[in-house]
Every structure is written in structure tokens, then in C-alpha cells.
Write a structure and sequence with these properties.
The chain is α/β, with parallel strands linked by helices. The chain has ten helices and eight strands. The chain has helices at 7-17, 37-46, 58-68, 95-103, 144-160, 179-189, 204-212, 229-237, 268-279, 283-298, and strands at residues 21-26, 49-54, 75-79, 127-136, 164-170, 195-197, 216-219, 244-246. Helix 9 (268-279) crosses helix 10 (283-298).
């Protein structure tokens, strides 16, 4: 049976060795954390675990900003529309509303719109990225065109405000359409530079393609699963440590030994430990590099 660290081990490793962790992708802004978000994030603050909460629609994006504004440092927000929500209503991605969220903040006092936002100061420094956005064909590919349109609009928003981009991709159930190849074509054409492919589920060649464009690869608790042999092989042999962002995707994808439970940012340690094991380096060294990656990516 694997020798997993206990909660006490985790606490001591962070406190005594002053190890910093960075959960680059979580959803503490979602309803499942409605009554415990402050408890979870206050604990992260005490243990030097930084978190970026990711929006999937306008309301969850706004909530991510509201939560981030409660903390002086260590809690940030990304705003955007997830591809599965891009077709749910006309104009699901309202460009101006997201501009106001960036330039004004969660108070949403409409900014005077000159039509040119370049150089406008942020009202909040808590928004560090756009997304998650991208393509999701898991249930159906019939919304490809609207997903593509919304994806490109969010790419443009990220460019306009010089923000990082968080990309979501999910293939169709039957594998008939490869989302990663379609994403690659779009981001190459749009000259996207500072982006991460969140919760990467592609193969080694696709990882190399994305890294060839300068992108990071997001690794979740899936890497701890016994059957995740392909991902483990890629982390060990294909993806340099300097190109990895670790994430929990809380409340989803809890790592072993918490698989099946509600995930939380504190469990990002299990991801870091598994990567250290696969790379055959110390846990401390892995954390140092992985944290530096996230801080560089988000410019915090």
C-alpha cells in the first residue's frame, strides 16, 4: 500500500520547511464551497498555499473576483466562459461585461467606454487570467462553431489586457474529433503565447506541440491515479518540470488517497509529491520550481 503523507506530515512540511504551494486552478467560487470557502482559503493562507479561482460563466467569474478581493495576497481570479456554457444563451460571453469586471472590479460600476481599453489601469490586481475557455466535444461537437467563436473572443480579451489564458480541452467520447488539434490550430493562428492547457489529457506529441508554442501543461490529481500510466510517463519523460503548472481543479478530481471525495486546494501537495517522485527529485525542489512556474505565469 502506498505510504501517503498524513495531514500532520503535510502541515509540518509546509510550516517547518517553509514550503510554498500554488494551486493554479481551483473553483472555490463554485456552489459546493458556498458555506466553507472562507474556512478553506483561510487555511490555505495559514499554510502558504496560493490559489487561483477560475470562472466558468459570468456569475462564477464575478464571484471569483469577489473572493480574491477579500485577501491581500495569495488568492486570485481568472474570468471567462467555459466552452460547455458558450451555447446556453445568446451572447454567453459578453465582452463589455468582462471588460468592466477587469477595469472596475466586482462592484461592476460600468466604466466609461471609449472603445479602446489598452493602457487603462486595472481597478483590481486580482484578475490574473482569462478562462477557462477552449473546446469541449465530450457530449457533442455540434456547438463547435460557437465554442470556437467564444474561444477567440476570450483570446482577444486576454491579449487586450495582457493576461494569461487558461485553456480547456476535452475530446468526444468516441474520439472522432480531437479537441487538442483544433485548439492547437486556433492558438497558433491567433499567436497565443502565455497560456496553459489545463488538466491536460492529450498524448506526448500533442504536449510537445503546445510546449513548442511556449505553453504550459496543467497537471491535476489524475497523475496520482494508478491507471494514469500515460500521463505519468509524459510527466516523467516528456514534459520538463519548468513547463508544468500543478492544479487541483477543486472540487473535482481529488488525488489518491482522497479519490471520490470533494477536492480542495490543500490536496495540491499530493500532485507535487507525485511529480517529485516521477522526476526523481526532492519534494522541496519540485515545489520550488512548480511555485515559480505559477508565479511567473500569473505574474504575481
Amino acid at each position: 500500500m502506498p505510504n501517503y503523507p498524513t495531514a500532520t506530515d503535510i502541515f509540518r512540511s509546509v510550516l517547518v520547511l517553509n514550503i510554498m504551494l500554488f494551486d493554479s486552478h481551483a473553483h472555490i467560487n463554485f456552489e459546493s464551497f458556498e458555506n466553507i470557502w472562507k474556512e478553506v482559503l483561510d487555511d490555505c493562507q495559514k499554510n502558504d498555499i496560493w490559489v487561483v479561482n477560475i470562472g466558468s460563466q459570468f456569475p462564477t467569474s464575478k464571484r471569483a473576483v469577489e473572493i480574491a478581493e477579500e485577501y491581500e495576497k495569495g488568492v486570485y481570479a481568472s474570468i471567462g466562459v467555459h466552452p460547455i456554457h458558450s451555447h446556453e444563451q445568446e451572447n454567453a460571453f459578453d465582452y463589455k461585461k468582462f471588460v468592466d469586471l477587469i477595469t472596475v472590479g466586482a462592484g461592476l460600476v460600468p466604466a466609461q467606454d471609449s472603445g479602446d481599453h489598452k493602457g487603462r489601469p486595472y481597478n483590481t490586481n486580482k484578475i490574473v487570467a482569462i478562462g477557462e475557455t477552449g473546446l469541449d466535444f465530450f457530449h457533442s461537437a455540434k456547438y463547435f462553431e460557437i465554442q470556437k467563436k467564444t474561444f477567440i473572443e476570450q483570446i482577444n480579451l486576454a491579449k487586450e489586457f495582457d493576461l494569461s489564458l487558461i485553456i480547456h480541452g476535452r475530446n468526444s467520447k468516441d474520439g472522432a474529433i480531437n479537441c487538442y488539434q483544433e485548439i492547437y490550430k486556433i492558438i497558433k493562428k491567433e499567436k497565443v503565447k502565455n497560456a496553459v492547457v489545463h488538466c491536460f489529457g492529450g498524448n506526448a506529441d500533442e504536449a510537445k506541440q503546445f510546449m513548442g508554442l511556449g505553453l504550459y501543461i496543467g497537471v491535476t490529481g489524475i497523475v496520482t491515479f494508478k491507471n494514469a500510466k500515460e500521463l505519468q510517463s509524459m510527466v516523467r519523460d516528456v514534459i520538463p518540470l519548468e513547463k508544468i503548472l500543478i492544479e487541483t481543479d477543486s472540487p473535482y478530481l481529488a488525488p489518491d488517497p482522497h479519490r471520490g471525495e470533494q477536492n480542495k486546494p490543500q490536496y495540491v501537495e499530493y500532485v507535487a509529491r507525485k511529480i517529485a517522485e516521477l522526476k526523481n527529485i526532492s519534494y522541496e525542489k519540485a515545489c520550488e520550481v512548480l511555485c515559480a512556474n505559477a508565479r511567473k505565469f500569473y505574474n504575481v
